[in-house]
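pinned: reference chain
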Amino acid sequence: MNPVIDTTEIETEKTKVKERINELINEVLPFHRSEKSKHAEQGDLRENAEYENAIASLQKFEAELVSNQHKFEALNNMDLENYVPTGFVGIGSTVTIKRKDSGEVLHFLVVVPELGDAEKKRLPVDGMLGKAIIGKQAGAEVWVRTSSRKYYATIESVA
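pinned: its structure tokens
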């Protein structure tokens, strides 16, 4: 089976995340900090809607910065070029499972939580399916319980 994701995709995503971090640090946050200061100078902060909005915006972008910093760190730690298959499902494993109820075959790469993305076939280890298969080998049957359904699946391959 071909890898579901390659290292160039990780590098491209890492570049985009780093650019957003720099934009937040150098442009977005300084702007919102100055807006907060400007509105703070308008007097009574208890009834200053502009000040409250400025604080909310600043907090939103500070949270985005922290989230992007965690994602960048996770991307740096995804060293797929040096991944060595162990036969057990772990971070970096390319896994194929087959659902018992529908017969559907799923292929994905197991990743750290920050990189989970169903469209890119990246399965986070902290999701319901990730938790069910982590540490298992090909041939293992697992019980998967999600918020909307429950099903058995067989791990067909681990690379």
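why pinned: The chain has two domains: 7-80, 83-158. The chain has a mean pLDDT of 87.
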